[in-house]
Automatic annotation (TrEMBL):
Keywords: DNA-binding, Transcription, Transcription antitermination, Transcription regulation. It comes from Pseudomonas izuensis. Gene3D superfamilies: NusG, N-terminal domain (3.30.70.940). NCBIfam families: PRK09014.1, RfaH. This is Transcription antitermination protein RfaH. Residues 8-106 form the NusG-like N-terminal domain.
Length: 169
């Protein structure tokens, strides 16, 4: 929820220069600003191997906690920062409840309990356009998707399906 600037200390939204979130975060911390950059740990394929990486929840943005008495001018010239996001001709204030929710979301993993699946295990698709079909489990693709091998259109097809759409046979 974004509102216009009010009195007291609040959280504000900063836009970073392209691909400079890390740089902006480091430089603002060096200047002793209280900042928050929501990040989630996900699994990515890097050079063909699954790796756990930390990614920004909102790429190109971060939050800064400021009061009206704080010196705002260094923020505009901080390396990596593009601008303070404005709404109705004033800095956009982000409600404390939103920041608390984001902090809680980033602290608790969003991954559900993943069933133990073995390569070669038969799984049935129960939702989606391929709902009645069965496939053979090949591998996990991150925490929420599965690579299946289907016999489809007289050929073997590898497809990626959400884990929530599958049940073991």
């Amino acid at each position: 929820m974004l509102t216009t600037c009010t009195n007291g200390s609040s959280w504000y939204l900063l836009q970073c220069k392209p691909r400079q979130d890390d740089r902006a975060q480091i430089n603002l911390l060096r200047q002793s600003y209280d900042i928050f950059r929501p990040q989630l740990t996900t699994e990515r394929l890097i050079r063909g191997k699954p790796r756990r990486v930390s990614e920004s929840l909102f790429p190109g943005y971060l939050f800064v906690h400021l009061s009206n008495e704080d010196n705002w001018s260094p923020i505009r010239s901080t390396r990596g920062v593009s601008r303070i996001v404005e709404f109705n001709h004033g800095p956009a204030v982000v409600a404390d409840e939103v920041i608390e929710h984001l902090r809680a979301r980033c602290l608790t993993p969003a991954t559900p309990d993943i069933p133990e699946l073995q390569p070669g295990q038969t799984l049935q698709i129960v939702r989606g356009p391929l709902a009645p079909l069965e496939g053979v489990f090949l591998s996990m693709m991150g925490a929420e998707r599965v690579m299946l091998l289907l016999q489809f259109l007289n050929r073997e097809q590898s497809i990626c399906v959400p884990l929530s759409d599958l049940v073991p046979q």
